[in-house]
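Task card 7
Instruction: Convert sequence to structure tokens.
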Amino acid sequence: LLLAGAGLLLKSFDQLYRVDMGFNSERVTRFTLDLPGAQYDSLPEMAGFYRLLEERLAALPGVQSVGSVFGPPLGRGSISGDVLIEGMPEPEAGNEHSGNIHSTTPGYLRTVGMTLLRGRWIEPHDVIDAPLVAVVSETFAHQNFPGEDAIGKRVEVTASFGYGNGYRTIVGIVADVQRTPTRAPISDVYFPHAQFGPVFLTVSMASDGVGPRVSDVQREVAALDPGIPVQRFETLTDAMSREVAPTRFYLLMVATFATVAMLLAAVGLYGVVAYLMAQRTKEIGVRMALGAKRSQVVSMVLGQGLRPTLIGLGVGLALALALGRVAQSLLFQVSPNDPLVLAAVAAMLLVVALLASFLPARRASRVDPMSALRAE
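Output:
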């Protein structure tokens, strides 16, 4: 039962790392900034700060691109609202579609390696005085415009940071992104930061090797405003590891117990079979004196060792099938009754039982019939 649980968790852990998050976590370093609202109280001021900062960070050695976002995957920050489509009546209560809003600077979507399906990215000319635009996720487009091309449609999401809102023209569609490995993609919409705010953003930097040091980032931020602290400096790989840490802990704990249980079972089985064979040394000697072959003695001993093992395997598999649903909340994209895992666990235990029974069986087959009869 312990090995089955460890096997299911191990497969879940593998599945977590195989999830296509919709972005590239390798060689991306990020940190968060929270500009003081009293000092940066207008869109041009806050957008200007982040534009200058991204230019300075992009000039650091090894940095390939820089972009900032509100509401990053595997991070803090989220705002959502009901979706209104221009020319369509407001949806009835209970039938609203919501959109999860991300405010981004022009370089963010490309910095984290998102995929543009149609249209264009958010560009530097998407500022407060330009037409309001948005880039949406594939799920957003399918949810709000089934069977239609969302490019060119105008939508509004009923949420804002107080810097104004309104209908925006959809200019691009990107592939879905998962906020965490265990959550399905949601309906996302990306607004230009220069048209939406806010002061709080996560800045991401893609590098061609070792990312910039926190001291380098602090120096560039301080050059623009020494009163703004750099917070939560990390790589996206570290963020992913933190997200799967609970599963890793459960896996380690159960795997440790399972390994100890398997070792105890192997040692116990070996000890019991060896003791029984020692008690039956005279009997085996008599059998061999009467013509029993060594292969027959080995088969007899192995059978006696494997019989309780097979019974235990049957009981253990039945318990694993019955109690598998208890572990369902800890599993990810793995059935609690996964046949491959259960078969592998059964085979592993059977091999252990065979090895634990083989040495006593071989020792019993080498009993000298004359010595056993002389002792009798």
